[in-house]
Amino acid sequence: MTCPRCRRKMREQRRTFHKQRKWICPQCGRVRMQTTRRAVVV
User: Fold this and answer.
1) DSSP alpha helices (H): ranges in the chain?
2) Which residue, of 26, 30, 33, 41, is most buried by count of CB atoms within 10 Å of its CB?
3) Domain that residue 33 falls in
């Protein structure tokens, strides 16, 4: 996952919270939560 602000590769914090992964940018310190969603089958 890349940081939306500075376009650098974010590192993952090793814990999940409500089935969400936490990503932290090493340069600007921005925190982003990634939701684990299943693909919708039509």
Assistant:
1) none
2) 30
3) 1-42
